[in-house]
């Protein structure tokens, strides 16, 4: 379910499963259309998705994006007896309400920045008066805001202004509650886990490159590139993240009566005091998933199916098998992204299959079928991934592939995986 680069990567993996009968994607994209039958239901239409799944009699729904989960897609599917890889609305609040997520971390002693949730000007002044949140707290809209809800003010006078703008409705209902939190420092790491509400199975790590321009400058985006494995990952750190973050989150939700089934994404900052949770997401990352997908070294379909039914067998190892290679993903975007973009440019050099040549992979993100072939249909258009024994090799493959795909407005960062990376 979904139609971006993450969903193309998932569809590609699922399409290779010997257990697969048929694959239907809604709404999909031209790349996914080569692997699955497409159904014209938009990803945001939870009732439509549920009708489609019932009508087709599917055995499993794999949710790509978060919004339909927050809208109750998994709850509706449960009513008609269809397992969903993706949590019910109550558990999806981990992503859809930052206020809920912060209070949840506090209840279960999951390491996180100090925070305060405010609903009006008086609350805001009280939260800032004590100074416990530091000089320059981060300001976040509590609700889903498509990546626009996090503000990192550069001077103290901006904090109250930005917070009031959110409370006054700049992002609509998403900002009716505002979370202020201590600003942390350190490298960021995305950690993924598959869970059935009881067991936690590590599903890889990645780091993404959120800023639009080289050298981490410019506006935040959905992600201009990613690498897997992520920054500073070693077995000790992963064990600590499982113990301090993933297990308490999964067990905490179950104890609160909202067991979680699907993939849990912990966005962490590796601070001098250890890993702390910046955010939880209830889905794979995009473009992290495009870096992870070629590294999975086992069939995902049975794992997703078991997790969705709440039945991960005890015999399953505590981590998915991953290939040891490094992967580097580069996003080919339209130049004006993350601002409003023009669409409809025809794309040259696109391979037919995901695997294009040795250890190069091409995923459609924002594309559509036009009169003259595949054309651009969004800000992030294509994701290319290179796999390599070394970072340099993976990077070289990714950039060679990026250069081979053209349209007039194409733009991409040149420095993905160019800086300091682990091992
Ligand atoms: P979020 O959507 O909450 O992960 O925030 C988006 C980005 O803002 C993160 O990837 C970080 O780069 C940054 N950020 C969020 N919260 C904090 C924090 N408490 N301290 C420092 N940076 C943060
Ligand atoms: N790349 C960040 C996200 O998917 O949330």
Describe this structure in words.
This protein has 423 residues and is of the alpha+beta class. The protein folds into four domains: 5-93, Rossmann fold, CATH 3.40.50; 114-181, ATP-grasp fold, A domain (Dna Ligase, domain 1), CATH 3.30.1490.20; 188-308, 2-Layer Sandwich (D-amino Acid Aminotransferase, Chain A, domain 1), CATH 3.30.470; 326-411, Phosphoribosylglycinamide synthetase, C-terminal domain (Glycinamide Ribonucleotide Synthetase, Chain A, domain 4, Alpha-Beta Complex), CATH 3.90.600. It is 28% helix and 24% strand. The protein has twelve helices and 21 strands. Strands 9, 10, 13, 14, 15, 16, 17, 20 and 21 form a nine-stranded antiparallel beta sheet that branches. Strands 5-8-6-7 form a four-stranded antiparallel beta sheet, with helices on both faces. A two-stranded parallel sheet has the order 1-2. Strand 18 (367-370) and strand 19 form a beta hairpin. Helix 5 (89-96) crosses helix 6. It is globular, with a radius of gyration of 21 Å. The two termini are 35 Å apart. The model has no long low-confidence stretch (mean pLDDT 95).
Entry summary:
The chain is α+β, with helices and mostly antiparallel strands.
Features:
nine-stranded antiparallel beta sheet; binds glycine; globular; Dna Ligase, domain 1; 24% strand; four-stranded antiparallel beta sheet; D-amino Acid Aminotransferase, Chain A, domain 1; Rossmann fold; 423 residues; 4 domains; binds adenosine monophosphate; alpha+beta
